[in-house]
Design brief:
The complex is a heterodimer. Chain A is an all-alpha fold. Helices cover 75% and strands 0% of the residues of chain A. The model of chain A has no long low-confidence stretch (mean pLDDT 89). Classes of the chains: A mainly alpha, B mainly alpha.
């Protein structure tokens, strides 16, 4: 490939070139699998399907923390995936960057809201 | 390549390169590519419904009153349908994601294994979704 991919001709593809995001997506995927397993175990072992049982699970600090960490991982994972989708299907640079920024803002809003929810109980 | 091999006339076969969206209907996708596009669709569905999930989590946790409200809210048929859509997206994305993670370790990359594992992904995710659907709409 000729080296004309510089200056104003630079190919704008978004942020970064893949390896870090690729790895982050895998790490966060494993986190979510583990959290799913923990949640399933909590469901199967607990016979208390009332508000007390549910809120009691979320009242413990360790559960709050792993929930928050997993959700943050989910939001990062979603960012990588949504960026892939915008990069593949939206060819117009201005529109693509707008959609990517909207995705980031949307996910940050979700992250802040989830912290508020988790620490409300 | 020897002359003899090169002389064999090529059979005319349809060739698909960078197909356009409008050509999708006459392009028969292999199982692995169906799982691939469903991974994308299910991921987008979950992304789009994140506020709905967070809203449900909030109502289920905030107080005993909001918990009761949440229990009433999830009995609406439309809400149940949205939840079922989410459950399908989660199961599909989960199973296909595990397949991805396994394939990242260079296991099952050949055509036959990939086809079998994608069939397994569809079978497991659809079965689990069907079970949840039966539970959700009160069959058992």
């Amino acid at each position: 490939m000729a080296n004309n991919n510089v200056g104003p001709k630079r190919l704008v593809v978004g942020a970064g070139y893949g390896m870090r995001d690729w790895l982050a997506q895998r790490v966060t995927a494993v986190m979510m699998v583990l959290y799913t397993a923990i949640l399933l175990i909590a469901f199967v072992s607990g016979q208390n399907f009332t508000y007390e049982g549910w809120a009691g699970l979320f009242a413990q600090q360790w559960f709050k923390l792993i929930t928050a960490v997993t959700l943050f991982g989910l939001f990062y994972h979603a960012w990588v995936g949504m960026r892939d989708i915008w990069m593949d299907y939206v060819k117009a640079v201005g529109l693509r960057l707008t959609l990517q920024m909207a995705t980031i803002l949307w996910l940050i809003a979700c992250a802040v809201w989830s912290v508020q929810i988790i620490w409300s109980v | 390549m020897s002359e003899a091999v090169r002389e064999v006339p090529k059979k005319e076969r349809p060739e698909f390169r960078n197909i356009h969206v409008t050509e999708l209907s006459n392009y028969r996708m292999p199982l692995a590519s169906i799982v691939s596009i469903l991974h994308r669709i299910s991921g987008f569905v979950i992304f789009a419904l994140l506020p709905f999930v967070l809203y449900l989590l909030q109502e289920s946790l905030r107080s005993e009153i909001s918990f009761a409200h949440y229990q009433g809210f999830v009995t609406y048929p439309l809400v149940k349908l949205i939840i079922l859509g989410l459950v399908w997206a989660y199961m599909q994305h989960f199973c296909a994601g595990v397949r991805h993670l396994i394939m990242d370790t260079h296991v099952g990359l050949d055509k036959d294994s990939a086809r079998r594992s994608s069939a397994a992904v569809l079978a497991v995710s659809l079965t689990l979704t069907a079970l949840v659907a039966l539970k959700l709409f009160g069959v058992f």
